Amino acid sequence: MTDDSRSMENIIAPYLEMEGVAAAALVSTDGLLVASAGGTALGLEALAAYSASIMSSAKGLSEELETEPPRSLALDFPGRTLTLALLNDELLLMLVGKPTRSG
Known about the structure:
- By secondary structure, this protein is α+β, with helices and mostly antiparallel strands.
- It has helices at residues 3-12, 44-64, and strands spanning 21-28, 33-38, 72-77, 80-86, 91-97.
- The mean pLDDT is 90.
């Protein structure tokens, strides 16, 4: 592990202290997992790729709507949430919620 990746992990680790967060990750807009904390049982590489694709689709949708692209997206799945926030033109923050009981 490089010093840069350790530094990025230190930046995102505090998100794990937020109630309900199982994993935090920095993802390139190309879909590569740059750094992560928590969520060892999750397929974070796959989630990173899907998350970048979702943000890209949202950007395309915003162009059709003639508006600015969203800065963040929250997906509320039964039993789990996924929050994405664009940090800059190259990087997004991905927060994966802890499983919840859905009824």
